[in-house]
Amino acid sequence: MDWKSKRIRTILEAALAEDKVANDVTTALTIDKGLRASGTIIAREDCVVSGLGCIPVILDVFSKMSAASGSPLGRFQVVSHPEIFDGVRVKKGQSLAVIRHNASAILSCERVTLNLMQRMSGIATLTNQFVKAIAGTKAKILDTRKTIPGLRALDKYAVCCGGGVNHRLDLQDGILIKNNHISLGGGLPATLERALKGRKAGQIVQVEVRSQAELEQAIAGGAESILLDNMKPAVVKKAVKQIRAALPGAPIEASGNMNLKTVRDYALAGVDFISVGALTHSAVAVDLSMKITADVY
User: Fold this and answer.
1) Active-site residues: which are they?
2) Residue 99 and residue 55 in contact, taking contact as beta carbons nearer than 8 Å
3) 50-97, pLDDT tens digit by residue?
4) In this structure, are strands 89-90 and 47-48 parallel, antiparallel, or unpaired?
5) Which one of 3.40.190.10, 3.40.50.300, 3.20.20.70, 3.90.1170.20 gives the CATH number of domain 6-123+284-294?
6) Other C-beta atoms within 10 Å of 154: how many?
7) CATH, range 131-281
8) Are 36 and 181 in contact (CB under 8 A)?
9) pTM of the prediction?
C-alpha cells in the first residue's frame, strides 16, 4: 500500500472532514493548546493488524489543517515495535503503536484513526481465518467488490494483510460476465462471443455459471476462466473435472455464501480460487482502544 498516494490521502482527508476534526469544540475548550501527549493504541482482543500506515498520514493531514488555520501543532512521531506491522497477529493487551504529538491533535484524530484500524484489522482477521481454513490445499481466498463505498482501497489492502488475494479492483480491472449480463445480452453464447471479440489485448474473459447447461455453454464458447456460483461442493468437484478436461489451464473459481464451515469442502473440490464477499461486507470490527497520557519530551 502506498500510504502517501493521492488516492489514499484523499480518503483520509474525507474521513477527517466528515468528523469535523478541525472544529473539535470539546478539546478546544478543555485542553491546553500547548500540551503534548502520548497515545497508545492497544489490542483489546487477538487479531491480525491492518492500517498502521494510516496513522502518520492522518496526523500529517490534521497538522497541515491546523497550520493553515494559524495554529501549528509542532512535530509528531509514531512508534511501533519492530515486530508489529500490518499482517502480524497480535494478542489481547498488546500495544500496536504509540503516537507522540500535540494532545489536541491526538484527541481530535482518535476516533477516525481507531475506526479505520478497527475495520481494517477486522477484515484482515476474518480473511486470515478463511486462509487457515483451507490450509494445505491449492486454493486461494479472493475478495469481491462488496466493499464500503469510498473505502475499497483500504478494504482490499486489509484482505491482503490477512493472507487473501485481491480480485477485480473495479469494473475496468477485468471482464466478468454475470447472470444479468447474460440475461440482457441475449443469452450466454451471444454475450460471451461479444466479449471475446471486443476485449482488449491481455484481457481475460471470465464467465459466471449457475447450472450445468450454462457450464457447457461457457466451455463451448471458449470461456477463459469460469466462476461456479452457488453450487454444492460435490457439484463443483464434478464441474472442475469437466473444465480441466475441456479447458486445461483455465482458472476455476467458486463463490456463493461461503463460510468457515464449508469453505474447505470447496477448496478440496479442486478450484483455484474461492471468492468470499463476507470478508469485506460482514467483517466485525476488531476492538482497539487508545490510552492517552500527558507527555514531556
Assistant:
1) 111, 146, 178, 208, 229
2) yes
3) 999 999 999 999 988 877 666 656 678 898 888 999 999 999 999 999
4) antiparallel
5) 3.90.1170.20
6) 25
7) 3.20.20.70
8) no
9) 0.95
